[in-house]
Predict the 3D structure of the following.
Amino acid sequence: MKFGGTSVGSVEALNRVARIIANEEGKKVVVVSAMSGITNFLVSAVEDNRKDLNEVIETFREKHLNVAKELFSGELMDDFMVEFEKRFTEFRNVILDKEMKKDPYYADNVSSQGERFSSLLLAYVLRSMGLKSVALTSEMAGVYAVGKPLSGSCDLKKTEGGLNVNVRLLLDDDIIPIITGFYGVNEDGKPLTFGRGGSDYAASAIGNAINADNIQIWTDVNGFMSADPRLVKDAVTLQEMNFSEAAELAHFGAKVLHSRTIEPARLKHIPLWVKNSYEPDNHGTLIHHIRGQRKEPLRSVAMKLDLSIITITVGEISYKPVLLAKILEKLAEAEIIIYGISTSLSNIALLVHNLDVKKSLALLHMLDSIDIERINVRSNMTLICAVGDGLLNRTGFCGDVFGAVKAVGASVEMISEGASDVALNFVVSTDYATEVVKTIHNKFVNGSD
Ligand code: ADP
Ligand code: ASP
Ligand code: MG
């Protein structure tokens, strides 16, 4: 059971979540995000050199202690304070240690601190209700990560070993472990975060590691919806989806799930629920291994902002497979994520994040310039991901979608169709992206056409 930032962001929210946990039958492992706003606060403390770090430390302490004072008293509060001070001493050291600042994983360490305190608060709320619970950091639980700073991947095999040693015995004793989401420990024993919003992914990885019967992602909406409800007012909640549909949407911008949440669950066929901690009785969305044609071609649409198209022109590149391989190899060296590829006889177009453009160009310029005629960059691009199990079998569907794009006045800059059997991806200028999403949603999900 994973609870997001707003679900653990206040005294009321923590009490509500504790009731949900208490009402859930069977053995459970809980994963939490930091209280809402805390990770942003920590990230800005690292990024803004002018911030008074002692003030950061004090604000952080006050925020958590104020909540604790409302929730606990007497002996429980004394016990809480012992664990709190231990974690707080470490927190203060991380923030103030000048040597640590030089470490490439420093920002991971600082931004992972919020989860260490929200997990402690929740464990004590459960104790105050007479339940047995312990707060475990990812270090204590044995959640392992590999990869570059701020974009770790969970080492599922090692994590399975870690949890078997550190968590399974607690479950046998009916103790509810509350584990920090968002990060694992790298091979040097340092915290490595999974990217913003990474507690969903941590929960799925932990579910995989303990062979859970199901994984529940508790958030602040009724489930996975047909579009971002902040963007599309009449978006509807989906009762169920298959793994592929949810995975494509999460990867291409549906913020309700971290982009990599589905894979650890899918690997072990573990059903994943998205549920609302404010309305626990609501059905939510069940994401699992179903397939089959549904009435509606389009089920949900997401968009991924901040992308650029890099087009590399090489005469007859199609006849130069070695050069093509070298281009991809160069970008792989820097672990650049490619969100889309499109080719013609003499061009290859690659869709990458804006922040990766400079690095990509530097790497591409290291290739033999005799072969490469031109490299062109178009920025301000947004990828629209339209998903539905039966979408590509529906004759004329793409034409209808592109008709809607034209109606908005936008043009399609790049297309990927057929690679996935559930998704149609295309790129438009960011200036039109929101309007395109609204129009497509209105035309195909609400069926107002
Ligand atoms: P948490 O803190 O629980 O992880 P997030 O804010 O990360 O919650 O994710 C939940 C939010 O995702 C919702 O409040 C909603 O605004 C947004 N969202 C974006 N796309 C979708 C979608 N397709 N379905 C549901 N919610 C979405
Ligand atoms: N607290 C982290 C973040 O804000 C992780 C998460 O919320 O999932 O990104
Ligand atoms: Mg989230």
Summary: The two ends are 40 Å apart (CA to CA). The CA atoms of residues 101 and 107 lie 8 Å apart. The pocket of aspartic acid (ligand 2) is lined by residues 4-5, 33-34, 39, 114, 181-182, 196-199 (CB under 6 Å). DSSP finds 16 helices and 18 strands in the chain.
